[in-house]
Design brief:
The structure holds two protein chains of two kinds.
Chain A: E1 2-6, H1 10-21, E2 25-30, H2 33-43, E3 47-49, H3 55-60, E4 68-71, H4 76-90, E5 95-99, H5 105-110, E6 115-118, H6 119-130, E7 137-141, E8 148-153, E9 175-180, E10 186-187, E11 200-205, H7 210-218
Parallel strand pairs in A: 1-2, 1-4, 2-3, 4-5, 5-6
Antiparallel strand pairs in A: 7-8, 8-11, 9-10, 9-11
Chain B: E1 2-6, H1 10-21, E2 25-30, E3 46-49, H2 55-60, E4 68-71, H3 76-88, E5 94-98, H4 102-110, E6 114-116, H5 118-131
Parallel strand pairs in B: 1-2, 1-4, 2-3, 4-5, 5-6
The chains are: A alpha/beta, B alpha/beta.
Chain lengths: ~220, ~140
Amino acid sequence: MYIVIVGGGQVGAQTARELVAFGHEVTVVERDAETVRALNAELGEIAIIGDGTEVSIQEEAGVNRADLIVATTGRDEANLAVAQVAKQRFGTPRVIARINFPKNEEIFRVVGVDIAVSATTAIMSQIEQALPSTPLIHLLELHGSPFELVEVVIGEDAATVGQAVRDLHLPAESLLTLVVHADGRPEVPTGETQLTAGAAVLAVTLPEHEAELRRGLTGGA
Amino acid sequence: MKVIIMGCGRVGARVAAEFDAEGHDVSVVDLQPDAFRLLPRDFHGRMVVGNGVYQEVQREAGGEGADIFMALANGDNRNAMAAQVAKHLLGVPRVVARIFDPERAEVYRELGVEAVNPTVVVSNLVRQAALDPARRS
């Protein structure tokens, strides 16, 4: 894939290193000449100097043939501009933007940035997973869709242990995609699948149905 | 009309003063409290200190139910983002943003933001003044 990264700071540089290591073709756009020199010395002429929110710089970076553009600067307004210019001018199929302030997530989503990555939100999701009592864990927001992927763990004392999936009362528009039993065995659930104590159920749902889904899966209040 | 202006620099303060003098309900938002000294002494509108890019600051300034939002701060990207927050998250029907970069101004126009581009406007005026000073405005 050809990937353009805007912002050559810590996040951008590390993303570039990993993508280059995976064999992708990468261009980094960065305003600071010294940072560009250092990246080129390390990774071999992959970085150019410029403001990646400008149409002409995106053109120079070859955004018109990019499969993906990633905006990684520390300024949310710049990341939004990178994404919108790429989509509107060059029809970039996929744009990923870093969000530095979680309160900006909504506008990124509303204007059609494919994936907005907020470090704070990612850390919260990890904390949810680390806390044993969390009833429902947010794993992923689905690209271009209001649906999200969540995980619900079936507790030892859940009323639904031993029940078949077909007998559960689940909200409409919720889909069970995978059951990982306590022994680590994954199973694609069918109506026959029985919930086991300690199993993790991965489900696709709408944010407004989270509570109902959790109740349906665990029998809890 | 209810008008919100982000950025109380020379242009923002002037536009705010004009809308205020015409009897409109005006709120001005700026990061710096001392920016409001550019407003005339008899300014009746509201002055809100805060980052006008954020929807809660726009709401505090009365952005919900506003007829017009104008982003006149420094920085094309800030102005563009603030205008789109007003349009999409607060439902302000008319949003105007000052965008210096002509190419980005065009992009935002396509996305429903009234982008005013001083670079083009001023260069046209300069050209006119140089070639035909009598017609200068």
